[in-house]
Amino acid sequence: MTVSLPSEAKRIAERDSGHAPWSLWGSYLPDRQWGTVREDYSADGDAWRSFPHDHARSRVYRWGEDGLLGICDEQCRLCFSLALWNGQDPILKERPFGLSNPEGNHGEDLKDYYFHIANTPTHSFMRGLYKYPQARFPYEQLVAENGRRDRTQPEYELVDTGIFDEGRYFDVFIEYAKASPTDLLIRIRAINRGPDAAPLSLLPTLWLRNTWAWGYPDQIRQPLRLDGNRLITPTLPSLDSYELLLNGSAQWLFTDNETNDERLYGQPNTAPFQKDGFHRFLIEGEQGAVNPGGEGTKAAPLLQHTLKPGETWTVELRLRALVPHDPADTPEDDDPLPFGDAFNALFEAREHEWQAYMEHRLPGLTPDDRLIHSSALAGLLWCKKYYGWSVVRWLDGDPTHPAPPPERMHSETAPWRRLHADDIIAMPDAWEYPYFCQWDLMFHAVSFAIVDPATAKQQSMLLRSPHYTAPNAQTPAYEWALSDPNPPIGAWAVMRIFQIERKQAEGTADFAYLREALRKLLLEYGWWANRNDRSGDNIFEGGFLGLDNIAVFDRRFPLSDGSHILQCDGTAWMASLSLNLLNIAVELSRDEPEYADICERFVYDFLVLTFALNVPAQREYINWNEEDGFYYDVIKRPDGSTDYLRTRSVSGLIPLLAVASFDVQTVERLPMLDVLKSGSWLIHERTSPTWLEANMGRWHNDRLLLALVPEDRLRRICQRLFDEDEFLSPYGIRALSKVYEDHPYRYTAGSDSEELRYSPADSPVAMFGGNSNWRGPVWMPINFLLIESLQKFAHFYGDSFKVEFPTRSGNWINLWDASLQLQKRLVGIFRRDAMGRRAFNGDVDLFQNDPHWRDLLLFNEYFHGDNGRGVGASHQTGWSAVVAKMINQLHRYPSG
Q: What element of type H or E holds 585?
């Protein structure tokens, strides 16, 4: 029987085959470009003060652009976004506002409310919502009050000012629908939610990224110009000329995307019209701020209307190529006019196709789970943003601008001269983290696999491309510290993407992707394998490893007395990497026997790492503490003595992630997997056969287990893992045991003395900028990895291994059921409870009960360890989007 593919699936196939460039346009316009390392040209490297929000409206960006729920082409050459003014604000609303890291009492923090409601893999339908207050935006109040508060107090949010009381705001929906890859319909719907009439000015703005001001001969200024009622764009390299049409009449404003040197620096302007021209014209009444000649590199129609209470004001535009990209690339509607019935019908069709595609990917969800599932994926897709940065040009400077300060050559970025980014990348958070983060991106890629496998594969390999990696094969971490080591989960992500796509494709597998990925991952593996610690005993150096302030001391640096921290998670991550690479090689060896040889290397490395972490005979210490039944970091002093840092945190749970099992047929084909036989010589050198037989290479139910954590230690860890007084929260696994709430941990080493206390929400310390906190909250990505590991153990042990869930409850279940129970708790962060409340919204009555707010979902960076309230970055639909994968599994196994 032939199954008809949804229209969106057909577009994805056309994109992937190169038949139609559906990815040319998307929601790629960044939400924030100011305050980033790549825009910082200061001597001291203070990116926040070098390019603050106050400069953003008047100063040209070197490496990108930003806007509010906007779009651009895949190289961010031509950009579209909406600017708004309520008649009260001191600043034209062209981009979301938030505090810089020094201004916030918990680091950088978005202070606007906007929501990602719908998006598709080809960006054929996109819907966003901005909540625009009708009163003057309280910029100064937000800065002052957050500056007054310390780290023990919550952040002061926009809703706390009372500005949304009585519904005195506009709901501004911004929607895009593609008639073809180069024909975009745009609809803006503003709704007055307040009790009184309120004025609103809209400026749907089209502009060119400034690529001409830096002195390169192949880049010249080419303006937009008005031709009758059409705004015409110039033809750019690899981008046709476009026309922007407005349904109706308006006054068109023109200015240039140039810096206002007079305002910022007190120097004469080099161009007659500047980036902030619309702001100055509309708000400051400066008539000469816009170009009366009807041309410029930034243009917008000025639309003004006073909305009655409850009134909806609709604005329609169309952005389309003047010359079709391809003879077959014609709009699907038959209306010769750009607007009218066909315009509305296309929007309805694309919205229906979005819904149909989501239903196709996972049919039969409840309405609430469908809302969560589609919102998570919409946010993931909206957070695909343009990222441009040539480090060599950033270091050396541009021909027409002053040379960068010499201090730049001694920065952490200097060794990365070969990094050249000009890509669409899934950002951790579109505003708070508008740059790639290596390990975040792997979770993004796995989340993409359930809705867009091709993008999942592309994103998983992007940072391993030659123009990103260092000569030593290190992969960059993130722009603030490119050399920081991130958890090596690339092989895990590749294998999961391969497995998810194969399951969805009913057995069809992309082995070419797996082979290509393995080649690149092997180079990176070599870099990791050379990061042994100073004593050379196979305890791998850690450092940042993604867990920010998890430890009592900053694990990136030695202590003042020369002591250094031997991290249990450093070695555990490496063991997990070895097994994930082994899984890839085993999969490839089924049809290509030459991959069997490489399996032996991964088995050997895994054995050595297992001995190093678990076997006392290896050295004078191990990370396992038998008294407490937990893996701890160890502090090693200059005199060689050691001590445990007895803090039970997720770093001590990372060893659980290194687990795999194999069936009889696989072991017969690859005998090196049977470590009791293949590794006998190594066993006699490193430990006793008795220990190994009891703890490794075990057979059960015709499967062979390779696990970093032996069974007896797994049982002891699970007692703490599922203890509600320690790790188990009503909403998942906490990052730090709750026991440290009433009994904080203190440790003194030389002149260093620190305290670690359970803090379930915002960070209590400034470590790593203070905007992330691993000392108690629930983090979705680590929970996801733990759930998968529990399921791997369950696949091996079955009902022979049961745990008390929760501890001391008398409820004994197997590890598979325990993993499903954890997923229910995590999905419960977003589901309505019996009272109709969603945990992530906290105790804000407006968010919980108002019909215009209560079904709008935000996917935070992390969640309160006790009540599930969303904390940290508010649009972290990168890794928090893995909740969609959890819904997939809970739907398949509803009895868990």
A: helix 568-589
Are 711 and 614 contacting, i.e. CB atoms less than 8 angstroms apart? no
CA nearest neighbour of 723 among 645, 808, 601, 812: 808
| CA–CA separation, 115 and 100 (whole Å) | 21
Q: What are phi and psi of 299, to 5 degrees?
A: -145, 155
Burial 46-57 (b: 16+ CB within 10 A, else e): ebbebbebebbb
| Residue 572 tokens, joined | 């555990």
Cis peptide before 806, with omega less than 30 degrees from 0?
Answer: yes
**What are the angstrom distances between the C-alpha of 218 and each of 141, 211, 221, 242, 423?**
46, 9, 10, 21, 20
Q: Contact, 256 vs 210, CB < 8 A?
A: no
Along the chain (896 residues), what's the average pLDDT of each consecutive run of 10 residues?
A: 81 97 98 97 94 98 98 98 98 97 91 98 98 98 96 94 98 98 98 98 98 94 95 94 97 98 96 98 97 97 98 98 64 67 97 97 96 97 97 96 92 95 96 94 96 98 96 94 93 97 88 97 90 58 66 79 84 94 96 92 89 72 90 88 92 96 93 76 61 73 93 97 98 96 90 87 72 86 97 96 97 98 98 97 97 97 96 85 96 81
Q: What phi and psi, each to the nearest 5 degrees, are found at residue 775?
A: -105, 40
Q: Residue 63: which of 451, 525, 385, 496 has the closest Cα?
A: 385
Pick from 468, 377, 470: which is nearest to 8 by CA?
Answer: 377
* Cα 432 to Cα 703: distance, rounded to the nearest angstrom: 45
Interatomic CA distance for residues 411 and 513, integer angstroms: 36
Contact 778, 830 (CB under 8 A): no
State which H helix or E strand residue 839 sits in: none
Which amino acid is located at 774 in the chain?
W
- Whether 705 and 796 have beta carbons less than 8 Å apart is answered as yes
Quote the Cα angle for 169-170-172, to 5°.
150
Which residue's structure tokens are 């979705």? 780
Q: Which residue has the tokens 């957050």?
A: 146
Evaluate whether 198 touches 89 at the Cβ level (below 8 Å).
Answer: no
The Cα–Cα gap between 366 and 378 comes to 18
Torsion of CA 258, 263, 269, 272, to 10 degrees: 60
Token pair recorded at residue 249: 């009449």
Continuous H helices in 729-860: 780-797, 815-827, 845-849
Q: Are 146 and 155 in contact (CB under 8 A)?
A: yes
**CB 706 within 8 Å of CB 606:** yes
d(CA 464, CA 71): 27
Cα distances (angstroms) measured from residue 76 to each of 28, 73, 387: 8, 5, 9
Helix axes 490-504, 453-462, angle to 10 degrees: 170
User: Checking DSSP bridges between strand 169-180 and strand 183-192, what pairing results, if any?
Assistant: antiparallel
Residue 267: exposure state from Cβ atoms within 10 A (0-12, 13-18, ≥19): exposed
Residues 6+ apart with CB under 8 A from 437: 428, 477, 478, 486
**Coil, strand, or helix at residue 388?**
strand
Give bridge partners of residue 671 from the DSSP assignment: none
Cβ pair 801, 814 in contact under 8 A: yes
d(CA 132, CA 171): 7
